Amino acid sequence: MRRKARELAFKALFEHAQGDVPLSEAWRHALAAYDYDGDEPLDREGTEFAERLVRGYQDRAEEVDRVLAETVEGWDFNQMSKTDLAVLRLATYEALYEDTPFAPLIEVAVRIAGKYGGEDSGKFVNGVLARLKRRIDAGELRTVPKKD
Question: Does domain 2-137 have CATH number 3.30.70.1050?
Answer without folding.
Answer: no
